[in-house]
Every structure is written in structure tokens, then in C-alpha cells.
Task: structure prediction
Amino acid sequence: MSARKDALRQKIMADHAASLAILKSIAPEQWARPVPSDEGAAWTARDVLAHLAISEGGQLGQITRCLAGEVTVPDDFDLNRFNRGSVKKRADKTTDDLLAEIEAGHAQVLAQLEKTAEADLDKTGRHARGDTLTIEQFFHRITEHRLAHSQELQRALAD
Result:
């Protein structure tokens, strides 16, 4: 593995460990507490966990499509609608189920990084947020997104 990919892998693994430590420290009764969300939806801590469980796979799909030379997200993609819908679809999942999804998504992200050629890290595509990123930036966005939400949960639940 190149130094560039190794540094990216180390960042992904460190952010994963940090976010998982936070998520696993949340007490069962805290998952029902209301917390702020990106789109102003009335989310609980558990809803944020559900959002995180789907987000890595969604962003990984964007990476896969970008690497294949395909459109990463449709022009009319509504990220807020997608996020709200994905949380509702996971309403029957337990926190353990959602944490397992996060672990599986993390493994898939690392596997994709392993098989991504160094030169492909510079390919660009449109992220669901609407900005254009390199594949390397997509990987950063995935890991930083989960860590940021985990830290927000930690602050919100500390009150």
C-alpha cells in the first residue's frame, strides 16, 4: 500500500475507533433522547445512529459509481429526504443491529480503499451534498461524517 493510501487507511481506522467508543458508551436509555439533526428533523439519538448505519454504504456507492465513470447521484437527489427516509426504514432495528451495520460498512470502506488504485484517488464525482470531491475526499468525508455526528451526540447527551 502506498504511503498516501496507508495514511488514509490510518485516518479511517482512527476515526472509526473514536466514533465507536463514543457510540458504545451511550447508555440504553439515552438512545431515546431528542438530539439536533442536520436537516432540523425531530431525531432521537437512536435516529442519528440509524442515519450513520446507512450513510457509509450510501457514500461508498457514490465512490463505486465514480470509479466506474458513472453518475454518483442524480441531479435531483434530495439528501434530506433520503436521510429522513433511511432513518424511518431502520425503525425496527435495535441499536446492536445498527452498530453491526456500522461495523460492516467500515469493513466495506476499508476493502474499497484496498482495491482502489492510487491514481483513482484523484478521480472526481459529485457528493450527495452537492459538492465535487476526489475519491480521496470521499473517503475522508465518510469517516469525518461519522465522527462528527458521534461527537455531536456525545455533547448533546452530556447535558
In short: The helical segments are 3-25, 45-67, 79-89, 95-115, 135-158.
